[in-house]
Amino acid sequence: MSAQRPSVPVAAGSGHLRHEADDSGQISILMAGMVAVCVALVLGVAAVTSVQLSRIHVLDAADAAALDASDALALERAYGEGVGSGVPLTDATVVEAAGAHLAGRELPSRLDGWAIAPGTGTPDGRTAVVVVSGEARIPVVSSVLGAFGGGVTVTMTSTARSDLVP
């Protein structure tokens, strides 16, 4: 059983008794918890926003590289089969043109690096498919993720085709 606390009358004749409070410091713990939750929420929103912006940069690069690769004429196919209704492509010409485009493009500050990923090529000899993969740089969170051996990799696929009009 617990010992009973002494009671002190609040006002003479009111009949109300007050227990001496032993609650000092309780609000500090609550405030510390709320501040931790708010900081975690702000960092989480900043991280998600940063990854989304990184995704947009990678998508832009993939689109531009696919567009550049879609008119990378495969000379051996053009001389052998003719041009026809579209620019003839090979996997090698698509990878080479997309790689050259990325190499000549400035890396955005939100990314640690990017590269042409597997899957880049041409499925039908006329359409260029470019897959670009980049490592997102996330404020504050990147160092924490790096300590655990990982980061956030963003991979985007873009398709382009250059048709010829007679």
Automatic annotation (TrEMBL):
Alphabetically list the UniProt keywords. Answer: Membrane, Transmembrane, Transmembrane helix
**TM region positions:** 27-48
Q: Know the name of this protein?
A: Flp pilus-assembly TadE/G-like protein
